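Per reviewer request, we include the raw input and output of the structure prediction for the construct analysed in the revised manuscript.
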Amino acid sequence: MAEVAEQKRDIRQLSLDEIKNFFISIGDKPFRAKQVYEWLWKKSAKDFDQMTNISLKTRELLKAHFAINHVQVDDIQRSSDGTIKNAVKLHDSLIVESVLIPTESRITACISSQVGCSLDCNFCATARLKRMRNLNADEIYDQVVAIKEEADLYFERPLTNIVYMGMGEPLLNYKNVLKSIEKITSPEGLGMSPKRITLSTVGIPKMIKQMADEDVKFNLAVSLHSAIDETRSRMMPINEKSDLNELADSLNYWHQKTNKKVTFEYVVWKDINDDERHAKALAKYCGRVASKVNIIEYNPIDDGEYQQADPEALDMYKDILEAKGIIVNVRRSRGKDIDAACGQLANKSS
């Protein structure tokens, strides 16, 4: 019996029209589809029995034909600074992690787009896991819903922002990521403004240009970490395929099409990029691309080569960038005590 259940199609893979066609095929009223669709997305129903304005007979028919592969928050860890990390179990028992980050002015959901990652950035815990699969749009959506519920429960405040900065590279799961954003921003879903959503990528020029051509309304962040090709390639093998010049071309195309600046996410490491040469190279690169910079405090994942830079190095970067008129923020890490900070996801889970 369990084997049959696994073969049922996840109803959230169907469009509204496809659900309508199902109801027509069983001789039921087409308007039922809209009711079901609202339960699936706006109300985030986890099973068909929650759909209380639909008759028992119809619910049983839905159960016979479909499944709702809703994710489950398998474990919650709470940091001393209020950050919450969720271990999220998928329908096939794989685990991803998502994070609720509270500040005075906002509550941000940091969500995952892949189980593991294939990009081998050697400073990141997630990259040490092999990429097992892409997340479906509904699995990404469910992470946001879970954090939205936690924001209400633990903070009595609404979720305000979403960042695609968790496990995986969003642009290598392009179709599902964009579909999830469409659902999150739709009035039929969570109705959030795309201006409050940021997609973070290592920088895949071809896909950045494709996004720009699709006239997306959300924000773009790029994990840069060095504006010197030699250093960046050593840390991030993707740079050998698409170097900083090619990346700059794609980001200028993005700005031309969307009129949006890119945010460079930039971690400073001791004895790797914590000198004036690297800071000046970043300032020069920012002069080529309409951008602002987040300087990020590193969160060690072991005792290896990547270690946190001295606070003076972060201040040095800030001074050099600001002297060139570049908007820069220094971001101190949150959730370090539960391995929920930047680069730590999947360090001790699964």
